[in-house]
Amino acid sequence: RELVEEAASKAILVYDREHVTPFIWNNRTGDVLIRQFKADQDASGYRITVDTKEDFELIRQLIENYQAESLSANEIIQLLDRHPELKEINAHIEQKKIQP
Questions:
Q1: Is 70 exceeded by the pLDDT of residue 98?
Q2: What is the C-alpha separation between 37 and 98, in angstroms, rounded?
Q3: Whole-Å CA distances, 17 to 5, 30, 77, 98
Q4: CA-closest candidate to residue 85, choices 57, 51, 49
Q5: How many helices (H) and strands (E) does the chain have?
Q6: At 45, phi and psi to the nearest 5?
Q7: What global pTM score does this model have?
Q8: What value does the mean pLDDT take over residues 47-75?
């Protein structure tokens, strides 16, 4: 959270202000150490974000019908595996690519 707040307050470029993650990834402040880890399961096929109305609908259903706010990421993935109709809500949305 602190990195997102810092990025939001220090970002100058319009793109960085709209999408604070590239600001962090590009280490614009020079004091961010980024490490990556690989999860046991590839979850890249799941879209758990809110960029479109379809994303919002999925998240709404997850929270209202399955109390997803109290579930871990792995539990949400298991839930989506048990209910593929939920994953289909936003499956056609293509993730935006981060610009360099």
A1: no
A2: 19
A3: 11, 17, 30, 13
A4: 57
A5: 6, 0
A6: -85, -5
A7: 0.67
A8: 95
37, amino acid identity: F
| DSSP category for residue 30 | S
Better-predicted residue by pLDDT, 10 or 76: 76
- Predicted local confidence at residue 81, as pLDDT: 94
Q: Tokens 């298991």 appear where?
A: 78
φ/ψ of 67, rounded to 5, equals 50, 45
Looking up tokens 């604070």 gives 20
- Through-space distance between the first and last CA atoms of the chain, rounded to whole angstroms: 23
The beta-strand segments (E) located in the chain are: none
Q: Fill in the amino acid letter for 69.
A: E
H or E segment and range at residue 16:
helix 14-18
pLDDT of 28? 63
CB 94 within 8 A of CB 50: no
